[in-house]
Each structure stands twice: as C-alpha cells, then as structure tokens.
Amino acid sequence: MALKTILVSQPKPEGKKSPYFDLAKKYNLQIDFRSFIQVEGIKAQEFRKQKIDLKNHTAVILTSKTAVDHYFRISQEMRFQVPDAMKYFCISEAVAYYLQKYVAYRKRKIFFGKQTIVDLVDVLKKHRNNQFLLPCTDILRDTIPSTLEANDFSFTKAVIYKTVASDLSDLENVYYDMLVFYSPGGIESLLKNFPNFKQNKTIIAAFGPTTANAIVKNKLRLDLHAPQPNAPSMTGAIENYVKEILKKTK
To answer: Under a CB-based contact definition with an 8 Å cutoff, are residues 92 and 68 in contact?
Structure first.
C-alpha cells in the first residue's frame, strides 16, 4: 500500500528543523501534528487531599519542563514561598536551564543528569540527607519512583498535574495512512474520542515499549515499533518502513 499521509500525536516541533520535516521533504509525505493529550494542573483544594506539606522538603526532583511550571504554580496557590536554599535536581540540562524562568540560576543549587532518572542517581546520592519532593503527573512512569526507592532516597510523590484526552472531534472524518503514538495516553485519547474506531488498513506506529503494549492491549494492530537496533528514532523507523514499501512497488 502507498504511504502518503501521517499524523503524529504530538505538538508540531518548534522552529524549522526537525527529522519529521526532513522525512516529509525527502519522500514527499504529508506529515501533520496534533497533540492527542493535554496537561491540566491540579488545583490547591485537590492537592491538599494528598496531605503533603511543601515546606517539609529541602529538594525537588524535576523530570520535565511541565513539572517545573506546575511546581511553582502549586506553590503559589498554596501560598508557599519557595526558599532560596531549595535544591533542584533536574533530569536533563534543558530542564535545569528552564528553571531560570523562576529562580536565579546558581549551579551550587541546581543539578542535572543526562536524560533519565538513572543518570541522576549518582548526583542524588551526594545529597542523600535531603527530603525530596517529586512533582509529577497522575500517570508517572513506574521506573522513576522505583529507582528512587531502590536507592533508599527519602522522597514524596506529589501529583500536581494530570494528563487528559484532547478533543479530537474535528478529525472524525479525516483519514491518515499512518498514526504515530508516543505514549499510552495517546492511545486512550484515540479510543475515548472515537470508541468505534476501526483500524482497517491504517498503519499504527509506536515509540517505546509501554506505548506498544497499550496498542496491543487495546486489540489494535502494531505495525511499526521503535526504537529498534536499526532505527533508534521514530523517524528512522518510519523511513525504513517507507523504503520497504518503495521496494515492493518497483
């Protein structure tokens, strides 16, 4: 079958450079972007039900820019003045630099890993005596708290924002050759918006094992899965798929 149109269930990349843009140009593809999920902040009233006292924590573990935004938002709503002495442990350098939006960037108080919670463990061990707060979503990946528990860190998981399905009703009569998913939440959103969805010839691609499992669990056909040894990225996997189609049509 021909592959001409692709819908990626994420916001359109910022700027003019993206592997997706290169892929579209190279193979004359129409690649559209649409976020299937959106983030909503949990209000102070709901947060209080978790019985978490922000002032009892001397350090914060930040896993995304979204976590940064909502940590300072909930602090403001709870009338908690974040102390200057607070330590910030960020999952990546990009998240660490994003903190400048809220605090003066002092390297002695802001630490970061390479990209995963495992990369951050060695840094956290040097500050083991702190009481850590982990601001997170309601669908936090288990690997993050389990890694902290395995290393005996004293931390509190604080759900301060949640992931909900976007309204996709305008896509009801729009069809794509391929749908690309990056999270189980994207699959849930698809089925919530279109409970009678029939896959038929639509190619479904997934990035990551949890996303792939969500597709299979919901009795959909998993046609393309990344990362793979020959395709560590989603765009690389799609390109390989396109090449195979072109070979068959020659």
So the answer is: no
